[in-house]
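Last lecture ended with a question: if I hand you only a sequence, what can you say about the shape of the protein? Today we answer it with a concrete record. The protein is 4Fe-4S ferredoxin. Below, first the input exactly as provided, then the predicted structure, then a couple of comments.
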Amino acid sequence: MSSVIWYIYEFARKSWAENFAVAKTNPEIVETPDRFRDFPQVFPENCIACGACTAACPAPQAIKLVRSEDTADEEGQTYPVINNRGCIRCGFCAEVCPTDPKTITCGENHLIREEFTILPSEIMYVIDDYLCIRCKKCMNSCPVYGAIYEENNKILIDKSVCISCGECLKNCPVKGAVKGIYVSNVQEQKKIINLIVNTLEEYIDGQRDKITPLKDTEVYKMDYPIKELVESARSIVKNDALILDTFHKITDRLNMRIVTWDEGKCKKCQLCVDECPSGAISYDKEENVIKRDTNKCLRCSTCYQTCPFGVAGFFVARFLLDPPSLEEGVIHITIKAAPLPVGAD
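The predicted structure:
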């Protein structure tokens, strides 16, 4: 009982109450080191609404862009808002913020190297599962956790997390396994692709007298300087990086099927007319000739495999851009007979 009375007496003392009321924390505990990464601090007036912070954030719902209301004098300001309940204080938002001064700060970001401070890119990176060898060098080099991951024995890129820094492409040992796709100027890219393919097809067709006699084991090679083709592409879009990237994609993956037509061997049996799935081959009664419309032709090889007289020839062309330059680049073209059954001669 006496101990209880003593505790009541101690708590009731005026000096104890005064000491409790004016208690101060040790200043060394209050001060945080420079490297401490607190919740991000936002300076809305610096924001340019690029969206780099939202793209880099690995935590769902931790950051979003909002826009203040318009006034009579000016449009509303767009800026990021941080949800502290979702934020993991990784600092990626501050790291990728391109403004100077920064729109977002959160202390010294010592876990990410300075060279990864980037502007949001117009390139979206994807992995070609056909070419990927699962070496995981892209995963190991990626500065953003979770941007590249493995699922069902496939290496995938999460577009919502990827900051398009290009490290995966730089470190991939297989050409074409990681691809940078320009997400803007889509229609322009289509026009450039059609321009390249149609030009190459026309150029190859001009050499058909040299291609037609090729035997199964023979290869015909020729070069096409791209300088004039590049100038035509620049009339479509002014982005040289996009143009060069398109040339690379075409020359890396395009396998062009070529159908030649030797009218001198034709016996007018019309087997090809009936078999052609696109109506590209027709019989002209007045001229007594079999005609092939190159615009309708699908290069499917049906005529080649149907004709018993070898009128149609079927070849495959592959391409290589070397050197990888718009000013000095040359497309090396290799043509050989397609590995299909050959009709009787």
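Comments.
1. Confidence is low (pLDDT under 50) at residues 110-120.
2. The chain has three domains: 41-116, 123-182, 186-337.
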